[in-house]
Specification:
With 199 residues, the chain is α+β, with helices and mostly antiparallel strands. Helix content is 21%, strand content 51%.
Length: 199
């Protein structure tokens, strides 16, 4: 009986964990090419509230061409990294890999995400400079194009001059929003199940 309760709670935990993922970039127009790019390319943003990043990804149009190292950096340095391949699981227009450890983002802190591109590729871009728009999480602001061209490996990128408001079509990430609600639901399920079996 106890084992059954534990199995039910575990199943709910996995369900809440899997269904709660939300993409950072939800809409991106694939109609604006921006020349040839190489090095670590991505974007910077400010977190307006606490968030838990669980996966990093590369746009499918890029990921299908090879393997790409993707990193996430905060005020104290790299928070986590993954390698995305043509076989990585796909969600909408992005292929993702799960971080070994969930990355906790703090409110009002600036973060950078980027993928290392070993050979020049053509990327799509979105923003006012390209006459189109994109949609990102409402919990982030100050999005801007970031790049590093000096290092031959994955390196923290920096904001490109006049890159504010521009987003490159290469990296994405997924979060678990309001993780406390998921844990609360699991705790409530455990309590209800225990009460039911103790009658």
């Amino acid at each position: 009986m106890k084992a059954l309760i534990q199995a039910c709670v575990l199943a709910l935990a996995l369900s809440v964990h899997g269904q709660g993922y939300v993409e950072c970039i939800s809409t991106f127009p694939m109609n604006a090419a921006g020349g040839s790019w190489q090095g670590t390319i991505g974007f910077t943003f400010k977190a307006n509230e606490a968030m838990s990043v669980v996966q990093l990804g590369v746009f499918k149009s890029v990921a299908d061409t090879g393997n790409f190292d993707v990193g996430l950096w905060g005020p104290s340095g790299m928070i986590g990294s993954v390698t995305v391949t043509p076989l990585s699981p796909e969600t909408n227009f992005t292929r993702y890999e799960t971080l070994p450890v969930i990355a906790s983002l703090m409110p009002n802190e600036v973060y950078f995400i980027g993928a290392y591109v070993p050979v020049p590729i053509s990327l799509h871009f979105a923003g006012a400079l390209f006459g189109n728009t994109f949609e990102v999480l409402s919990t982030i602001t100050d999005v801007g194009l970031a790049q590093d061209t000096t290092s031959p490996t994955l390196t923290k990128p920096t904001l490109v001059n006049q890159g504010e408001g521009t987003l490159p079509g290469i990296v994405n990430f997924r979060i678990i929003p309001e993780p406390g609600l998921g844990l609360g639901a699991i705790a409530l399920a455990a309590f209800v199940a225990r009460k039911a079996f103790c009658r």
